[in-house]
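RECORD TYPE: inverse folding
INPUT: C-alpha cells
STRUCTURE:
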C-alpha cells in the first residue's frame, strides 16, 4: 500500500475494479508477515456493500494519513475492529474507511 496519489491499487478501487499484484521478494511485510508471504499473488476488490465484510477478512483500510492492509477482528454496529497478523489491535473504523478486501 502506498501513500502515493497515483497508486494503481487505489486507482483501481476508486474506479470499482479489482487489482491483482504479487508481493515482491525481499522488503518488509511488517505486521502482516504472519499472513502474507513474499511472492504471494493477491487480488484486492472494492467493497460494494459493507455487509459483505466478515471477521477474518483481509482489508485495505484508510488509517490516519495512510492506508494499511490488516484483518477484520470483530464487527459491531457497522464498525470494524482492525488487527494485524501479529495480534496487535489497531482500533475501530467505520465502513467508509474500508477501501477494499482480498
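DESIGNED SEQUENCE:
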Amino acid at each position: 500500500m502506498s501513500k502515493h496519489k497515483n497508486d494503481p491499487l487505489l486507482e483501481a478501487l476508486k474506479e470499482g475494479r479489482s487489482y491483482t499484484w504479487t508481493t515482491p521478494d525481499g522488503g518488509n511485510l511488517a505486521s502482516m508477515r504472519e499472513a502474507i508471504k513474499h511472492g504471494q499473488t493477491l487480488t484486492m476488490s472494492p467493497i460494494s456493500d459493507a455487509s459483505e465484510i466478515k471477521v477474518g477478512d483481509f482489508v485495505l483500510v484508510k488509517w490516519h494519513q495512510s492506508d494499511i492492509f490488516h484483518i477484520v477482528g470483530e464487527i459491531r454496529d457497522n464498525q470494524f475492529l482492525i488487527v494485524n497478523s501479529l495480534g496487535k489491535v489497531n482500533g475501530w473504523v467505520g465502513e467508509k474507511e474500508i477501501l477494499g478486501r482480498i
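NOTES: The helical segments are 8-14.
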